[in-house]
Design brief:
InterPro entries: Actin, ATPase_NBD
Keywords: Signal
Family: Belongs to the actin family.
Organism: Cyberlindnera jadinii (strain ATCC 18201 / CBS 1600 / BCRC 20928 / JCM 3617 / NBRC 0987 / NRRL Y-1542) (Torula yeast)
Strand order of the largest sheet: 5-4-3-11-12-21
Number of strands: 21
Largest sheet: 6 strands, mixed
CATH architecture of the largest domain: 2-Layer Sandwich
Number of domains: 4
Strand content: 5-15%
CATH topology of the largest domain: Nucleotidyltransferase, domain 5
Pfam family, one: Actin
Number of helices: 18
CATH superfamily of the largest domain: ATPase, nucleotide binding domain
Radius of gyration: 26 Å
């Protein structure tokens, strides 16, 4: 293959390709503003993908650039996009030739830029494009049905999580709204969203990740539309769901969307599929560690492998229980709940905020398993201010309090029964893989694309511990993971992925139009939302 693909060459080509990709984005932004769905806040993710692709040499860099172009833009038949893809094909051919000829990296980089400049041309009147070998396909611009137009129209995207709701438009780079999924009822029984009146009971919409309070969900969605200042009948609606959702719930979601809100077009996106596409992949092993549930879902070439999908309630709230017991034991103050005034549910909510803050600022995950809380080891203490005037010195519990996520049966809080065969985080992943019974190539593809997401996954050291555990059990595989270093984007990974999917041409088949639902009812729901 000629000259070795050195680290210097790898970095050089990564920089060249990122710059060329940015040039492509800017050209399209200038001529087709409505087609761009990527923003600067994803630049770190882009650089990460390009650097990984550089391991495969210059051809790998061309491939990732082409795939990113295809994923980012709505209409691949747009002549402008055709030009950019042709440019990539010519670039790839030239690079293959030059690598075979053993040309130095500096010469290759310069010739790469020259090729792009030569085949690139200006846009005439913002519509006419001239490029070598590209035939105009204006004759293909035909009238589309209601659903086929959806990828060219902005959609409202809503993610209802157990802890928080995120919402915005599909062409937003980040969700416009992030608010508590809890709601309250006043004395007249009216539902109040995103308000936490101390004297009202705070209630939930979801249980085990599934909707059970439909009146509250309707109020939640109407609140979103009011904040976004848009009428539900004006734009398509895209929501997310856990993969263990059921047919009955999906039908009720459609009834709410079409009959109560009157949306014109509606789609439901599987959470792990949204996460996968949100990080620029089509194959991944999604490990989602949220507030109420932890789930592991294999996705191969855009298809969820349900046989390997598994979830548990050993998640953020499970850790909160251990943190609460620890703080109560260490503190001389009254019980945490008694430090707040209001209804019982309001006190629990305020307490959960304290527990979450403790997790975020104090905890970290041990790089190796700690099978017993009696294990002694040295660690620098941390101080946590529990309340004004009261500080708690936290020693080895900084890491011990995370172990229940990995070994739940060894860390049983008082009064809680844990089955001896309960699966911790690492075992959950291994169980998912074992259930699959797929080819070695598929296992390899999944284990080199482990995507870690969810609010609880932000605890420092968790990703490293997970990789270490998996490497011990699966030494024959080269395990690679990805977790977004941006805290807000990782917490919003599901919403970002759903908005990305909503803007892709291939997603139009997932929509149901209002007329279709009114005519066919549950039948079309089963057909489209499997």
């Amino acid at each position: 293959m000629g000259r070795c693909w050195s680290e210097k060459g790898r970095v050089l080509y990564a920089i060249v390709i990122v710059l060329l990709l940015q040039v492509s984005y800017e050209r399209v932004r200038a001529q087709r503003e409505h087609t761009v769905v990527i923003g600067e806040q994803r630049s770190l993710l882009l650089l990460f993908q390009v650097l990984k692709a550089a391991d495969d040499g210059p051809v790998g860099l061309c491939e990732v650039r082409r795939l990113l172009l295809e994923d980012v833009f709505f209409d691949e038949s747009d002549p402008l996009i055709e030009l950019l893809l042709l440019q990539d094909r010519l670039l790839e051919l030239l690079l293959q030739l030059l690598v075979l000829l053993d040309v130095g990296h500096g010469v290759l980089a310069v010739l790469t830029v020259v090729v792009v400049v030569v085949v690139d041309v200006d846009v005439v009147d913002g519509d006419e494009i001239f490029a070598v070998g590209v035939n105009k396909r204006k004759q293909q611009q035909q009238a589309h049905s209601q659903t086929s137009l959806m990828t060219a129209i902005t959609s409202v995207v809503i993610e209802n999580g157990s802890y928080e709701t995120r919402a915005g438009f599909s062409n937003d780079q980040l969700p416009q709204l992030v608010f508590s999924s809890l709601y309250s009822k006043d004395a007249n029984g009216d539902i109040a969203v995103d308000t936490h009146d101390p004297n009202s009971e705070l209630l939930t919409i979801l249980n085990d990740g599934l909707v059970y309070n439909w009146e509250a969900l309707e109020a939640n969605w109407r609140y979103v539309y009011s904040k976004l200042k848009v009428d539900p009948s004006e734009l398509p609606l895209v929501i997310t769901e856990e993969i263990w959702n059921n047919k009955r719930n999906r039908t009720k979601l459609c009834e709410l969307a079409f009959e109560k809100l009157g949306v014109p077009v509606f789609a439901i996106v599987k959470t792990p599929l949204a996460v996968t596409y949100g990080v620029g992949r089509s194959t991944s092993l999604v490990v989602d560690i949220g507030a109420a549930t932890t789930s592991v879902t294999p996705v191969v070439e855009g298809t969820v492998l349900y046989k390997g999908a598994i979830h548990t309630r050993f998640a953020g709230e499970w850790l909160n229980l251990h943190v609460r017991n620890y703080l109560q034991h260490e503190s001389t103050a009254p019980a945490l709940e008694d430090q707040f005034k209001g209804s019982e549910s309001y006190k629990r909510w305020k307490t959960s905020q304290v527990l979450n803050d403790f997790k975020e600022t104090t905890l970290s995950v041990s790089p190796y398993p700690i099978v017993s809380s009696q294990t002694e080891f040295n660690i620098s203490p941390k101080t946590y201010e529990l309340s004004p005037g009261e500080r708690v010195q936290v020693g080895k519990e900084q890491v011990l309090l995370c172990e229940p996520l990995f070994i739940p049966q060894n860390y049983k809080p008082g009064g809680v029964e844990i089955p001896q065969d309960a699966l911790g985080l690492t075992e959950l992943i291994l169980s998912s893989l074992k259930k699959l019974e797929v080819s070695n190539e598929t296992y390899f593809a999944l284990l080199t694309n482990v995507v870690i997401t969810g609010g609880t996954s932000l605890i420092p050291g968790l990703e490293q511990r997970l990789l270490s555990d998996l490497a011990r059990f699966l030494p024959q595989y080269n395990i690679q993971s990805y977790s977004n270093p941006n805290v807000f984007e990782r917490s919003s990974a599901v919403w970002l992925g759903a908005s990305t999917l909503a803007n892709m041409n291939a997603f139009e088949a997932a929509y149901i139009a209002r007329d279709e639902f009114l005519e066919r009812g549950p039948e079309i729901v089963s057909e489209k939302f499997k």
